[in-house]
Design a protein that fits this description.
Elements lengths: L7 H5 L5 H13 L3 E4 L5 H11 L5 E4 L9 H14 L2 E8 L3 H9 L5 H4 L2 E5 L5 H10 L5 E5 L11 H12 L5 E5 L11 E4 L7 E2 L5 E2 L2 H7 L4 E4 L1 H4 L4 H21 L1
Parallel strand pairs: 1-2, 1-10, 2-3, 3-4, 4-5, 5-6, 6-7, 7-10
Antiparallel strand pairs: 8-9
Helix pairs in contact: 3-4, 5-7, 9-11
The structure holds 5-bromo-uridine-5'-monophosphate.
5-bromo-uridine-5'-monophosphate (5BU) binds next to strand 10 and helix 10.
């Protein structure tokens, strides 16, 4: 079990990536380790959620390709909200191809992801070329990359060798890779940020095998730094009130971890 007792502010000093430093600092100053997974399908719903919940979160995670009425105006508006409420935008794109292809997918196409997303993620499966391709676009824009080290879904094919190899790959690009999507912290190095999806106030599963852990368990037992919550908040009767509950649980768990 790898658990960091250091504060986010302390860990910011170790970051080689400016965006990782920025994220640790904003979590510390805003006192939130909650990321909202804003999995809605209309531009208006996404903007409404971002504006309403922006004050509670450190990261807004998007799946831009599920938006049915996408226009570039949407991403401009999201950037304005990110500035207004001080959160980072993470496009959960899960790149998974050779370097040359992901470079185009990141930079161009319909979405021009690199122009508005502070952070994106990628599978390590294709090998280091995927990071090189993304870094060619993202480094000059001061963007950050998260590698998928472990998934939350039941029956995934990732084992501990794969996780360790993902960590080794990340170590070669520590100025661009900021951390991991993972259920368990992978390394004692303080600069890696561990972001965990599959979080709900009660342990649970959905009908497709999504597996949930509580904020307390994710942070205190599994070494997570950022809890990513989607349906637990957006399907609630009062998403703002629910986001505040997750924020409190997440922050309290982090403070307890630092005190231990
Ligand atoms: P939920 O509604 O809190 O279950 O949403 C979780 C989000 O995190 C959703 O956008 C997924 O695509 C994303 N996710 C995940 O659930 N598990 C993973 O291992 C990874 C991403 Br990687």
């Amino acid at each position: 079990m790898i658990i960091s007792r250091n504060t986010y502010a302390e860990r910011a000093h170790y970051c080689l990536s400016p965006i990782a430093k920025n994220l640790f600092q904003l979590m510390d100053e805003k006192k939130t380790n909650l990321a909202l997974s804003a999995d809605v399908t209309s531009a208006q719903q996404l903007l409404k959620l971002a504006d309403l919940l922006g004050p509670e979160i450190c990261v807004l995670k998007t799946h831009i390709d599920i938006i049915e009425d996408f226009t570039p105006e949407l991403t401009q508006q999201l950037r304005k909200l990110a500035l207004k409420h001080r959160f980072l935008i993470f496009e959960d794109r899960k790149f998974a191809d050779i370097g040359n292809t992901v470079k185009h997918q990141y930079e161009g196409g319909m979405y021009h992801i690199a122009d508005w997303a502070d952070i994106v993620n990628a599978h390590s499966l294709p090998g280091p070329g995927i990071i090189k391709g993304l870094a060619e676009v993202g480094r000059k824009k001061n963007r950050g990359l998260i590698l998928l080290a472990e998934m939350s879904s039941a029956g995934h094919l990732i084992n501990s060798d794969y996780m360790q190899s993902t960590l080794k790959m990340a170590e070669q690009f520590a100025d661009f890779v900021i951390g991991f999507i993972t259920q368990h912290a992978l390394s004692k190095d303080p600069h890696w940020i561990n972001l965990t999806p599959g979080v709900k106030l009660e342990d649970d599963q959905d009908k497709f095998g999504q597996q949930y852990v509580t904020p307390m368990k994710a942070i205190m037992e599994h070494g997570s730094d950022v809890i990513i919550v989607g349906r637990g908040i957006i399907k609630a009767n009062d998403p703002l009130e629910e986001a505040q509950k997750y924020r409190e649980k997440g922050w309290e768990s982090y403070l307890q971890r630092c005190r231990k």
